[in-house]
Amino acid sequence: MLIGLLAFFGYLFHVSFQAQERAKLLAISSDRDLDLVRIEARRASLRAGKTEENKLSWMPLGLSIKQELSLLRSTEKSIRSQEPVELESEDPSTILRQLSSINAGWYIALYAAISILFLCFGLRGWWKRVQKPSDIAIEIDLQLKAAALEKTKLEVQALRRHSGRKRSP
If both were cysteines, with which of 17, 51, 56, 63 could 68 make a disulfide (CB 3.0 to 4.6 Å apart)? Predict the structure, then answer.
């Protein structure tokens, strides 16, 4: 049962790691696309003669329009030449297909059966070692209390009888 639990958490860790890696790749891809859009917007502004629009924070100051356009072209070429980030398109049923290919249903059923079996053995052992002796102790305690109550009643009756005799003389 512990092995199954460890395997489950291992799988969750693996899925979490894959999701983090996928998020990093997606961020890189979106940053690259955003940079290309910003470069194109700056280029359009420069061509329109609006040098104060769409300034890029990483662009050096004091460049002429021609120098800036040249630098934008080379930067765009550099960004486009980078290997594109390819994200695997994962179909949600991929995991189900993987599980069905290894007959995971049988493993899951076997794991559930073993877990239920261990649960039954554990409860049975608990009942024998803890609950049954506790029930016996409670029953004995009740019998002792009943006997003590009966004894107390008899003592009270005896005292009443005895105190009734002293008053008579």
Answer: 63
* 75 lies in some domain: yes
Task: Give CA–CA dist 115/105, Å, rounded.
Answer: 15
Most confidently predicted of 41-45, 62-66, 74-78, 142-146:
142-146
Query: The tokens of 125 are what?
Result: 């052992």
pLDDT at 68: 86
**pTM for this model (two decimals):** 0.40
Contact criterion met (CB below 8 Å) for 55 and 39: no
95 within a domain of the structure (yes/no): no
Dihedral angle computed from the Cα positions of residues 13, 19, 23 and 26, in that order, rounded to the nearest 10 degrees? 150
Contacts of 53 (CB under 8 A, 6+ apart): 42, 45
5 and 65: one domain? yes
pLDDT in tens, 92-113: 566 666 656 666 677 777 888 8
> Which CA distances in Å does 40 have to 69, 85, 148?
10, 21, 98
Residue 15 tokens, joined? 């899925």
